[in-house]
Amino acid sequence: MRILKSSEIARRLAQATNDAKNAVSIKKERPKRPEVEHGQQIFIFSHIQKKMVAYSLTRALNNAETLRHIPFNGKKTVPSALRKDLWSPFATITLPEGYGPVGLSILQKLREYRKRHEHEWGDEIAKNPENGYFIAKKRREKKICDQVANSVADIAYVLGRLKKYELEQDEEPTQTKKPTQKRPRKSIIKKPTRSLNFPKPPPGGIGLVGEGKGIPIQIQWRDIQMAEYAESWSENVEHGLLPWSKNNREINDTKKLELSNRNKERKKLFHVRVIKRQVNSEEREEKKKSNPLDTISAVE
């Protein structure tokens, strides 16, 4: 039997550890999600109770970033932290590839308009239209926080500015003469020139990237009836339904039968108990009527 020296054992151990480190581990390739350009998609969320609206560039709301954009409209209007059970997806705006800067500009405009709605309100929110008195603070806070209808109108307005403007032609021809020529010549008739007559942006509508380029945009709604809050939509906007999936596990047929049988048995037991209670109450009343002296003695 050959006995190895301690140095040989240490050498072989070091070699084995190096071989284990250099060994290539085979990993299963998982399907990757297609990378989306920053600003190509805008995700819109709404609060279930207060109907507040939040805009995000990610599928999940970021706590710090979202709270930073929610203005203070009164006591307890800005939560200390976001709750996932109170915020639900409202809509998604999708732009074509290569239009990330346009999406960032749209997001900026939507946030600015929402902030103006929540800070610049008049007597229609502060006063009661019937008697002209000021309404309660809590009721006023609810009205200010409800920005669902305003946000839909803002989306329609901002996306409408991205539609392609038509070219207008000057139909009347113009006649010009060269002043340096001595001999009279025939008038030179020029062809009508095309001029781009873009409408002037309204006040506060400065800085929208891609205005007038006719960019096709797709909106997917959680409830497509929400799109009716806007008066009109431009031709470059396409509407659709947001794909919605619930975390419900599939139940086998045998389990369904077992659950249905259990529910039937529970219903039968419940009805039997109710009937017994009614019978017992009737028997007690009959005994009281038949033996009134016993009740009097018991009271004494």
TrEMBL record:
Signal peptide: none annotated. It is found in: Mitochondrion. GO terms for molecular function: DNA strand exchange activity; single-stranded DNA binding; structural constituent of ribosome. Residues 279-291 have a biased composition (Basic and acidic residues). Keywords: Mitochondrion, Ribonucleoprotein, Ribosomal protein, Transcription, Transcription regulation. Residues 179-193 have a biased composition (Basic residues). It holds the Pfam family Mhr1. Residues 169-209, 278-300 are annotated as: Disordered. PANTHER family: LARGE RIBOSOMAL SUBUNIT PROTEIN ML67, MITOCHONDRIAL HOMOLOGOUS RECOMBINATION PROTEIN 1. Belongs to the mitochondrion-specific ribosomal protein mL67 family. This is Large ribosomal subunit protein mL67. It comes from Golovinomyces cichoracearum.
